[in-house]
Design brief:
The protein has four helices and no strands. Helix 1 packs antiparallel against helix 2, helix 1 packs antiparallel against helix 4 and helix 2 runs antiparallel to helix 3. The N terminus is likely disordered. The radius of gyration is 16 Å and the shape is globular. By secondary structure, it is mostly helical.
Length: 106
């Protein structure tokens, strides 16, 4: 399949293909949301983590990455749940998914 710079790739059926980075972000965010929901611990900034995970999930399904906003959300999530070691591996996966997008354009 040939495509010009700036065009979205399409499948043979004519539907858009999803950016694999967005898929990775969505999968890792879903995992962290499930683990956070299943974590019995109560900590003061849990609602911040929940809210920012919703923001990242919306970006993952929306198709338009806002890299500075993704990085801000990641920092807020890490600050909110950073001391909960059980969530560390899932948080690192979200970070890895955000890092797939590279640095924000300035």
């Amino acid at each position: 399949m040939l495509r010009s710079v700036g065009q979205t790739p399409v499948t043979n059926s004519g539907t858009e293909t999803k950016d694999p980075r967005m898929t990775a972000l969505g999968v890792t965010v879903l995992r962290l949301r499930r683990e956070l929901a299943g974590n019995p611990g109560r900590f003061p900034d849990r609602d911040i983590a929940d809210r920012e995970l919703v923001v990242l999930a919306a970006m993952a399904t929306g198709g338009q990455p806002d890299i500075p906003r993704m990085r801000r959300s990641l920092l807020l999530i890490a600050g909110a749940i950073g001391s909960v070691s059980a969530l560390g591996p899932a948080l690192l996966q979200v970070r890895g998914a955000v890092d797939l997008f590279g640095e924000a354009s300035r």
